Amino acid sequence: MKLFILLTYSFLAFLTSCNHVDKIRDSDGMSAIPDTSLQISTLEDESNQLASEKKKQLNINILLDLSDRIDLKVNPKQPAQKQRDISAIMVLCQAFKNNVAAFNVFKTQAKIKVFFYPEPNDAEIARIAKDLNVSCQAGNSGEAAKKNKVLYQNLDVGFSSGLNKIYDLATKNGKYPGSNIFRFMKDEVNNCMEDTSVFRNILVILTDGYVYDENEKYNKGNRYSYIEKSFEHFKRFRNRNLLENEFDQKNYGLIKVNDNLKNIEILVLELSPPLESPVDVDILKKYWTKWLNEMGVGKFALWPTGQPVYTEKHIADFLSY
After folding, report:
1. Strand, helix or coil at 191?
2. Which residues of the chain have a pLDDT value below 50?
3. Is the pTM of this model over 0.90?
4. How far apart are the C-alpha atoms of 208 and 228, rounded to whole Å?
């Protein structure tokens, strides 16, 4: 009987110790972030948790298209494109934070950055963008953990403030550098990839979906380096019969510029057709889907612009395994 009582107390003591989370103190006495001390998601639906599983570190890359899509005179829809873009990026920031919490401040190597291609000519925009490049460093020291914790705590305020300034500067100056997505996918996309044994590489492109740069216009047969509303190889497919029957038969598409992009996942958000031509979404998806498939992108999704609550769900669904 005494042995039974002793074993019972030992078992209860073991359970208590397993449920106890020791707080790790930094050099200044602040507690580091333990695995279970943070809410994993701000979404009400638990099925939409944002990549909180302790599987791989997140490497989130966000390519911004600062074209006239953010100009209220050109694109007057509400909420404004600025708010839609920033809302989407803040959801990605939450996914980053969830990933940090899942690994804890000592083991996290999560990365998130916002960038443009090409670099904007505005020096102030470029300076602010540098602050939107955050990388955690794993290490056993209290100093490394403290740095990661500060990055974690300041992320929301830093990104919200920086993004608002960038959009305000771009609209105030009336200079929209746009984004040469075609050239980016040719020359720069590989810079978005880290070791896949450690990282899950995510590229999020915020764009209206039209691929155009005035200095990057050429074609090879029915393959083009650009797609834009006014050009014949795009607008002809507003005839749905042509879109269904001739797009593939006559080998229309964007020119393939890369191979075997299996180690990156691409989420394209905010496709935005003109109100008078909603079929443009279908044309854009046709061009983009063929392009990304041919380049071997491991996983991708394309979504038109919508209310932020729906965009939030699209992001959550994409990031869930």
Report:
1. helix
2. 1-49, 51-53
3. no
4. 10
